[in-house]
Amino acid sequence: MTLTGVIDDHVLQHYRELLDQEDAAFDELEHAYEDGDRHHFEADLSQWAVCAQRRLAYLQRLGLDLKFA
What is the residue-wise DSSP string for 3-31? Predict the structure, then answer.
């Protein structure tokens, strides 16, 4: 992982907001799974993936190069 920019309070606040959105989307996904609601599960899964992609894109814009094994 490399970083080309500075991490300040604004960066951390925005990242926390993205994490909160992802967490809320996952909660909805979890509820749909527990309820056995396939239609909502698929929609919630898509929303959770979008939130995760937004978070990763933000990290990339900051210059963080994440490598996954």
Answer: --S---HHHHHHHHHHHHHHHHHHHHHHH
Residues of the chain with pLDDT under 50: none
Structure tokens at 57: 């894109």
pLDDT tens for residues 51-68? 999 999 999 888 887 777
Spell out the residues 6+ positions from residue 48 whose beta carbon is closer than 8 angstroms to its own.
22, 25, 26, 28, 29
CA atoms of 1 and 66, how far apart (whole Å): 5
Q: pTM of the prediction?
A: 0.82
Residues 66, 53: contact at Cβ < 8 Å?
no
- Contact between 63 and 4 (Cβ < 8 Å): yes
